[in-house]
Specification:
74 residues, alpha+beta, four-stranded mixed β-sheet, 3 helices, 4 strands, 35% helix
Length: 74
């Protein structure tokens, strides 16, 4: 998936409405990211890691690509 404009250098994109973080490297549902960008309720993290997103209370999305990436990291 191509990363959204302004997020070319970020991997993790948070949805403020649901406290879900999306992995832009492994996302296989671009329509979810497009809807999030349209809503303008997104957040990036510094440092750009899942650990930082988790520290802020965000949970990994449950799309198949994200689950596969999480399993590969473990």
């Amino acid at each position: 998936m191509e990363r959204p404009t302004r997020f070319e250098d970020h991997r993790w994109l948070g949805d403020k409405r649901s406290q879900v973080v999306h992995d832009l490297d492994s996302c296989d549902r671009p329509e979810v990211i497009d809807e999030l960008m349209d809503s303008q309720q997104y957040l990036c993290f510094g440092p750009d890691t899942f650990v930082e997103a988790s520290n802020r209370g965000y949970h990994r999305c449950r799309c198949p690509g994200a689950r596969a990436a999480a399993a590969a990291e473990a």
